[in-house]
Design brief:
Oligomer: single chain
Bound molecules: S-adenosyl-L-homocysteine
Distance between the termini: 40 Å
Strand content: 25-35%
Length: 464
Amino acid sequence: MKKNDCITTEIVDIGIAGEGIGKVDGYTLFIKDAVVGDVVEAKIMKANKGYGYAKLTKLITPSPYRVDEKCSVARQCGGCQLQALSYEKQLDFKSNKVRNNLIRLGGFDPTFVDTIFQPILGMDDPWAYRNKAQFPFGLDKDNSAITGFYAGRTHSIIPNTTCDIGNPINERILEIILDFVKSEKIGIYNEKIQKGLLRHVLIRTSHATDDIMVCLIINGVKIPKIEKLIHILKTLPGMASISISVNKKNTNVIMGDHYEVVWGMPYIADAIEGVSYHISPLSFYQVNPVQTAVLYKKALEYANLNSQEVVWDLYCGIGTISLFLAQKAKQVYGVEIVPQAIEDAKKNAELNNMDNIEFFVGKAEDILPEQYKKTKCKPEVIVVDPPRKGCDETLLQTMLEMSPERIVYVSCDPATLARDLKILCESKYNLAEVTPVDMFPMTVHIESVAYLTLRSNGESGVLS
Ligand code: SAH
């Protein structure tokens, strides 16, 4: 196989970035925009040893799983990699991904996995689910202000004010901002020369209250004539908070380190299953409120609490899971690396009148061993919800030493989940259940929650 070769192949699998995978005489080809089940003609763009990348040139036989993309820019935009695949098939793909990781990377026996693996929890309506969007601003070739999405893996903006997985209100807000920017001749930030004022807008909405938050991210100290913009934005039903965050750094990080409220409240209010949360512009908060409730309920079910237990919630963010657990536990300890998130977590505990939670700022792999050494505490349950890289080895070893009755592992990366479960289960835990939850329909991302129980003395190791 070499560059510019044209081939015909059937798409047999889906790659990690959502691309189609075809095989020609044992040679693997990654083909963007091809859907599993398609027969395609493609041109090789890059040929490595053993695998290459090809461009879809002709769809010979469309896959039975192919559906019309709802969004007109689905192919250019990097956000939704799976829009052309039926939702049912997306769920199958994600479920298989978790299952295969448990087998290949976790070393669990396939027959055993089938006994503990639960059906994926998908959405009834997998659209308009996101409660948060960040739109960059730029200029088109006529120097007119635009906003939209970065084309996959680039920083060129595809003009678009609608997003089918986002809240429909975003469009109205973006139009208001664009009108204001154009009429008041507000400068637009140019990344290449790091000049210009307006960089991004963050829009957040509350599922429970319909509150709206708008935060403008600028390379400067203030926006001229902002009162004119506020005057219009505040007429939108639900508008609760308008703020500015200054970011003068040449970085991919969107938000600045601080924010200043220019109208309304410093937060919006949301609630998940009766627990209330205040979300400020800089807080981490799950982006799919409907599925967050599904995920947290599953985690709470696995924690199996009876008001008597001591629980550690590691990687707790703004304490969302901690508060959920505290309703049913004797005492909850939360650990999170970002100090601001812990400030929010403490306020959220107060807001819900919960006094059985204590929060620690620091790395989970430092705090847990320190506290264990100091207090020799023996919690009944440990919950972890780490970022994609999974748990630190020191943390896993401390968890093994502490030997809680139950571990609930919430994961956004099935590969690191499988790696960590292997360590826990080779030592002294049984994998009791794994449930994938679709938090991010139309994208390749997948969340899962695993439930582990401490083996009773003498019980043999169960990887199979
Ligand atoms: N459980 C929360 C947040 C999960 S996201 C929720 O459901 O909303 C993972 C969190 O881990 C982030 O808030 C991140 O800041 C935090 N984090 C990353 N590395 C960490 C570490 N080594 N120790 C503790 N927290 C960490």
